[in-house]
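Structure ticket #2291
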Amino acid sequence: MLPITKRTAIPLSEIELSAVRSQGAGGQNVNKVATAIHLRFDINASSLSPLYKERLLNLNDRRITKEGVIVIKAQQHRTQEQNKEDALNRLQDLIKGVTVAPQKRKPTKPSKSAKKKRLDSKAKRGKIKALRGNVRELRRLD
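Resolution: structure written out below.
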């Protein structure tokens, strides 16, 4: 079981893990050993609550496919076990992120004094900028 919250956990049978070869530079072992881990988790087929499923599917995350499958590739570490643990932790963090309900925004208005200060500062700034313009020559009356 992969614990998410105190009441929620995901059975490991719902998580598909496969070992693949890591990308990038490596040593003598790079072409022989599959140390990277591909984790696939189908949101729709999981035992998560419908609320969590909906929030996950509404996330704008590149790791979630259009079909509702979370795909995580872990290849940071040199061993398969460490990469497996890393992939599971990243899945856990992703799902934990949707368990917290987003706070409702309370609309607020600026106070009268704040509005007055803002308009005064705009007027002052406008005067300063107006003084930067070309100076017109005054005609003498002779």
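Closing remark: The longest strand covers residues 36-42.
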